[in-house]
Amino acid sequence: MIQSFHRNDIKKISSNNGFETGIWYKGNFAGVIGFHNVDWSNKKTSIGYWLGEQFQGNGLMTKACVALINHAFTELGLNRVEIRCAVENSKSRAIPERLGFKNEGTVREAEWLYDHFVDHDIYGMLARDWNIK
After folding, report:
1. Model pTM?
2. 3-state DSSP assignment of residue 26
3. For a Cys staple, 86 with which of 32, 61, 110, 118, CB 3.0–4.6 Å?
């Protein structure tokens, strides 16, 4: 599984189409964050993330998201960043809400998770609305 993860990430990076990276906290692997892909024609990307339960509540993911959003707008020159979260995942949804993203709607049955489909809320941020944190 880890080898497959690395192969997919190498493909993304080599094609300039996103990346994933680990989040480390006090020497421990805490989670993952990255750009799912980059739509260069439309100057947009989406951020995906996962954080181990024992590392939640420390602001780690919010800080990691800020770093990626700043990179997307200032270094990559993108215009739009999206974050999609399962409607039932209040902790995941709290991050884009805390950062001032706009909830732009719900996609029904967007992801097969564990043993059922879940709806996703789509949050969007435009470069002109982002205040570098």
Report:
1. 0.86
2. coil
3. 118
Q: Amino acid letter at 48?
A: G
Radius of gyration of the chain from its Cα atoms, rounded to whole angstroms: 15
The 3-state DSSP class for residue 65 equals helix
* Confidence class for position 16, pLDDT limits 50, 70, 90: low
Q: What residue has token string 């990076």?
A: 13
- CB of 72 closer than 8 Å to CB of 65: no
Residues making up the chain, counted from first to last: 133
Average pLDDT, the chain: 89
Specify the pLDDT at position 19.
82
Output the six-digit token pair for 101.
């993203």
Instruction: Supply angle C-alpha 17, 32, 83, rounded to 5.
Output: 65
